[in-house]
Amino acid sequence: MSTDLEAELQTAVEHRRNFAIISHPDAGKTTLTEKLLLYGGAIHEAGAVKARRAQRKATSDWMAMEQQRGISITSTVLQFEYRHCQINLLDTPGHQDFSEDTYRTLAAADNAVMLIDAAKGLEPQTRKLFEVCKLRKLPIFTFVNKLDRPGREPLELLDEIEQELGLQTYAVNWPIGIGDRFKGVFDRREQKIHLFERSAHGSREAASTVVDLGDPRIEELLEEDLYYQFKDDLELLEGAGSELNTDLVHQGKMTPVFFGSAMTNFGVELFLNTFLDYALKPGSRVSNIGEIPPTYPEFSGFVFKLQANMDPKHRDRVAFIRVCTGKFEKDMTVNHSRSGKIIRLSRPQKLFAQDRESIDYAYPGDVIGLNNPGVFAIGDTIYNGQKIEYEGIPSFSPELFATLRNPNPSKFKQFHKGVSELREEGAVQIMYSADETKREPILAAVGQLQFEVVQFRLMQEYGVETLLDLLPYSVARWVTGGWEALEKVGRLFNTVTVKDSLGRPVLLFRNEWNCQQVEGDNPELKLSAIAPLTF
Ligand code: G4P
């Protein structure tokens, strides 16, 4: 390798951090994102991201919205610079938009920030996303938000994370008071107290007063009971003795915890600084030829998300590629692993919110958007040099199931073509009844939005109007060991058997309880919430 390129890649990796935020709706993800961008100088006044969100919320018809905006109801990539580092924030789609893209985005991330509302603690969507992070062994940084409002005891929140997620916690900073009596946080790294000043929604970077732990003013600044409570907490924390162990953080076994209030900007800078010091840089990735380091001189990356433009006037589609190795350059030609084709990457885009900006080069840890003339599917690898295939992106247990019907026999061909193409694109998972006489596809999704997208696109792009019959299941489990393993256990109750698009057996259950019952009754049956990967 030329030493120049080697040095260039090394520097790029050293100065890159990439992460996604996992949270439950309303925990403050939009607010935190905005504040991070504010600190990164990517926006000058908070409100920009928020305004877009409000605009989006205001419309009940997201399809119409999508048409107006052209692109991006789901994730975008936000890039900003902070302390000489290039930070890539992969925006996971939230609530109403919850879909498989939310999971897939985590496949492209090197770190996750788990955002928790101090009053609510862990919530369902956060738990689900945590499971994906755990599977990928992603380092998780926890930000406990909304300290300016009444909330739960900090120790109780840490305990919940430890008990329920099995993650060791290390509080990097510690709150003093909460709600109306929130006074600030103690930064354990610097041994300094950052005093909280209420600012009106914090549209600018927060000015903060920092005092040493030994400063006699503290006793005056804090009311007596808070002061003693704080001293007790500190003793308890120090007594607990755990150290911030970077290795454990990088293995996804320990989470550094921060307390703050995104709305008022409080604690955001402290968080960013520590995050930069401890977050994982773009690293090696598992492929068919072993682990490949990011400084490998040839370009390679994989598709983690496809996005179709809903606007019929601009029917382009964008494939989002996570750059894994080498340097990406505009107009370069690459090999497409699955088809063996050679492709010219001529219109690369970097996406800052909804504005598309053309880019000339990108490095490991970056995400680029490429026009997708139907070549790319989720999980595809593109590469130069020796043939590389990255580990695919698994399908996660869908929670919504519906039979899709085509009431118009003359549209038979278009219907099947559409269903099969949308499946390939990863818009939805498709399953079929194990009963050969039932040919209608079963759509399996993690979010309602996916159904709407499929029906809308079948109509717009394939001219087929469809009917959807919801099925009463909410849990899917792949049978490890395939049909043979399933036959061995004999008849099962409270479940139906279907097959996925690769013909593998999947059991559908009405609820978790039924699933556990079947597992309990048949210990020899091994079930998985994630589809086995095929290389
Ligand atoms: P999301 O993207 O995770 O769904 O959450 P978002 O940022 O939209 O925040 C949800 C609500 O929580 C917003 O209030 C937001 O202002 C508020 N919020 C976020 N961070 C904090 C915080 O640190 N402290 C307090 N007190 N509130 C916070 P909203 O009423 O829905 O919107 P708005 O009236 O503020 O626009």
UniProtKB/TrEMBL annotation:
A GO molecular-function descriptor: translation release factor activity, codon nonspecific
Single GO BP term: regulation of translational termination
Residues bound to GTP: 23-30, 91-95, 145-148
Pfam families: EF-G_D2, GTP_EFTU, RF3_C
Any coiled-coil regions, as ranges: none
Keyword presence, GTP-binding: yes
Principal subcellular localization: cytoplasm
Domain of life (superkingdom): Bacteria
Function: Increases the formation of ribosomal termination complexes and stimulates activities of RF-1 and RF-2. It binds guanine nucleotides and has strong preference for UGA stop codons. It may interact directly with the ribosome. The stimulation of RF-1 and RF-2 is significantly reduced by GTP and GDP, but not by GMP.
Family annotation (NCBIfam families): prfC, PRK00741.1, small_GTP
Annotated protein name in UniProt: Peptide chain release factor 3
Taxon lineage: Bacteria, Bacillati, Cyanobacteriota, Cyanophyceae, Chroococcidiopsidales
